[in-house]
Amino acid sequence: MQRVLVLDKNRQPLMPCHPARARQLLRRGKAAVFRRFPFTIILKDRESGVTQPTVLKLDPGSNTTGLALVADFARRGKVLVWAAELRHRGAAIRKALADRRAHRRFRRFKLRYRPARFNNRTRPSGWLAPSLQHRVDTTMTWVQRLMRWTPVTSLSQELVRFDTQAMQNPEISGVEYQQGTLFGYEVREYLLEKWVRKCAYCDAENVPLTIDHIHPRSKGGSNRVSNLTLACFPCNQRKGNRDVAEFLDRDPKRLARIEAQRRAPLQDAAAVNSIRWALWRNLVATGLDVEVGTGGRTKRNRSQQQYPKEHWIDAACVGESGANVRLDPFHKPLAIQAMGHGERQRARLNRYGFPRGYKLRARSYLGFRTGDVVFCAKPKIEVFAGRVAIRFRPSFVVTGADRKVESHPKYLSMIQKGDGYAYA
Ligand SMILES: [Zn+2]
Q1: What long-range pairs does 270-274 form, CB within 8 A, spacing at least 24?
Q2: Residues 128 and 274: beta-carbon distance below 8 Å
Q3: Protein residues near ligand 1, an ion, with CB under 5 A
């Protein structure tokens, strides 16, 4: 059950409480609603209270980042008390910048001669593309918010997919990749990265992949990672006990590619994921303890407890503290979608990038801004909650979970001011 976040009367965070308890407090007038999303109440007369050690756990992903708040209760052990999935808008940012670049290039190319000006920009070290930096920034926004609204005592993040330290040079050392050991999970993640999550023999993607010995054990092949690849189930069955040269005798090109790829060690795979490292530096800067985990360990923790694959569950299973976390697999996490705060550009462009009009400088109209969450009580339809998109005339568009309605603002009442995110 998603717990309700609780603040004391000085806005200091207390332990999140059960929704029934929150309803009781609200009914008795002992608390007021502080925020709707995430649902937070503020107590009217209480100051401070006992809190348990609480870890905010993060599983950063390219589209979705999982957030999980796990409290360590003395009697009941580690319990998930709150979870969310933060969807990023990296693709939208990338497209906006690509459009702008195309428009500028087109205008300049059309209009007049300009001397070449490229190669004259520098980037600070640690620079990330805006679409990537956005992922770090929005994640940090939520870390900081949860530090304000919940008694977070430490942080935990999945930093790398697999741990090369734990594997010690994986391409050289022998491998006993038994199921169940952490080592086996690290090897698996390593192979997924190395073989680009595809079947080596038919390039099948998004199918369950099994570990395959390129040169089979029975024919003297070794257990080293350099002799392992990933195969889909049908290919694995068809290859059976055969050597790769025998199996691919009709496809010498693929055979050569596999032989080359199997010998090439995965270069510095830890540095591949620049966003995760940037996020880690930001987390350390908060001053809280930051535990880091690997994808291999996350997967092991999750499968040992037989939880399904969800971003928020992965977050709860990150790192050493991710073992034995009690959670309900049917728990509904808060869905957070990064929406941005509108755009700075005032010109409306036609499809060639030339101005065809100008937007008003004002951002609000009749007390509303685009992005506010409102109740819509328009006559003749059921009252519903949604996100408002304003126009500079009294006809706004309200988008609810299952409908989109044009409404006069007089029928709208504010639930929560827009903060750059949409919630579900
Ligand atoms: Zn295959």
Answers
A1: 270/160, 270/164, 272/193, 273/160, 273/161, 274/128, 274/132
A2: yes
A3: 199, 201-202, 204, 232, 235
Quote the ligand 1 centre to 251 CA distance (angstroms).
14
Which residue, 310, 334, 359, sits at the end of a domain?
A: 359
Can you tell me the distance from the alpha carbon of 406 to that of 54, in angstroms, rounded to the nearest whole number?
44
pLDDT, tens digit, for every residue of 131-170?
A: 889 999 999 999 999 999 999 999 999 988 777 666 655 6
Query: How many angstroms separate the alpha carbon of residue 229 from the centre of ligand 1?
Result: 11
Give the long-range contacts of residues 242-247, CB within 8 A, separation 24 or more: 242/216, 243/215, 243/216, 243/219, 244/214, 244/215, 247/201
Largest separation between any pair of C-alpha atoms in the chain:
79
Are 194 and 343 within one domain?
A: no
Distance 231 CA to ligand 1 centre (A): 5
Residue with tokens 């190395």: 194
Range of the domain at 27: 1-49
Cα(242) to centroid(ligand 1), Å: 15
Separation of CA 202 and ligand 1 centre (Å): 4
CA 209 / ligand 1 centre spacing (Å): 8
Same domain for 149 and 75: yes
Query: How many angstroms is it from 304 CA to the middle of ligand 1?
Result: 27
DSSP letter string, 96-116 = HHHHHHHHHHHHHHHH-----
In-domain check, residue 123: no
For residue 32, the CA-to-ligand 1 centroid distance in Å is: 58
Give the C-alpha separation, 397 to 234, whole Å. 51
Residue 96 inside a domain? The answer is yes
Residue after which a domain boundary falls, among 198, 232, 263: 263
| Same-domain status, 39 and 62 | no
The pLDDT tens digits for 95-132 are 999 988 988 888 777 767 777 777 888 888 888 889 88
Domain membership of residue 251 (yes or no) is yes
| Together in a domain, 216 and 233 | yes
Centre of ligand 1 from the C-alpha of residue 213, in Å = 14
